[in-house]
């Protein structure tokens, strides 16, 4: 079960597919996906697999833990059935605790640190140790969900602990005077451990990036802008009607039609793309969802019209 063409699975992606099934009324499919993720794609320590592989802490996609917890709470909300959560509570608890391990905590601000970014790039691509916005957003979303599940499971101490950490991480992400992700009125993608913005990356010589990919061309390879900064707006991690939300959405507009004229937002600045450049459907949907929440319907319709005419539209199976 995977949206990827090479038949490997991500906890994050399958959890979102499960939420889609819940909203479409396919309760049994959602239960099948979420049950399988808990049994087979979460390590005993609570780490979430990606590409069907277990990653070490330095390359853990910590946002996956938050997304899974969010999806599990959505399952309980949409179905009223908490039996899966009750049966798997030790594993659910491990998912919540894993990002709170000391090795991920920045010594000054407590935000989550490693060398993995939202789109899979890591040290080989030039991602240095630092803090990824998506990790700081989805872990608190997941911890808030886990806290509400803990109340259902009559575990008040866990509920209080996870709710407290969720608020701490959210406050630091949006408001910390040195390590916050708000810069010049908009959210940025990634910070270095000293609190400066990681603006660019340089791949190592052994990266095996395909010839012709933008990331190995001469010149600067910019990390910003990146469509992942719209996810806090889409999920109401911040107020979608705020100036911060509007300026963040404005910051990703240059990603539409970068080195192409067929439409769609690139995942991020094309110069740091290790794959073929082009518009990405689900990255574009991130922007569209955030635009809906922020009261910018025309930006959402531009994405939907593009998807309706892009190759794969009739099958609902678009190219990456």
What composes the largest sheet?
Answer: 2 strands, antiparallel
Q: In what order do the strands lie side by side in the largest sheet?
A: 1-4
Q: Give the oligomeric state of the chains in this entry, treating copies of one chain as homo and distinct chains as hetero.
A: single chain
Tell me the β content.
under 5%
Mean pLDDT: 95
Number of helices: 11
Total strands: 4
**Proportion in helices:** 40-55%
Low-confidence region ranges:
none
Radius of gyration, taken over Cα atoms and rounded to an integer in Å: 19 Å
**Category by helix and strand content:** mainly alpha
Cα(first) to Cα(last) distance is 17 Å
Shape descriptor: globular
SSE arrangement, N to C: HHHHHEHHEEEHHHH
Topology diagram in text:
Layout: H1 11-23, H2 27-40, H3 63-79, H4 83-87, H5 89-97, E1 130-132, H6 133-152, H7 156-175, E2 182-183, E3 186-187, E4 190-192, H8 231-234, H9 243-251, H10 281-293, H11 297-309
Helix pairs in contact: 1-2, 1-3, 2-3, 3-6, 6-7, 10-11
Overall description:
This protein is mainly alpha-helical and 320 residues long. It has helices spanning 11-23, 27-40, 63-79, 83-87, 89-97, 133-152, 156-175, 231-234, 243-251, 281-293, 297-309; strands at residues 130-132, 182-183, 186-187, 190-192. α3 (63-79) packs parallel to α6 and α6 (133-152) runs antiparallel to α7 (156-175). The protein is globular. The two termini are 17 Å apart.
What is the gist of this entry?
By secondary structure, this protein is mainly alpha-helical. Helices cover 43% and strands 3% of the residues.
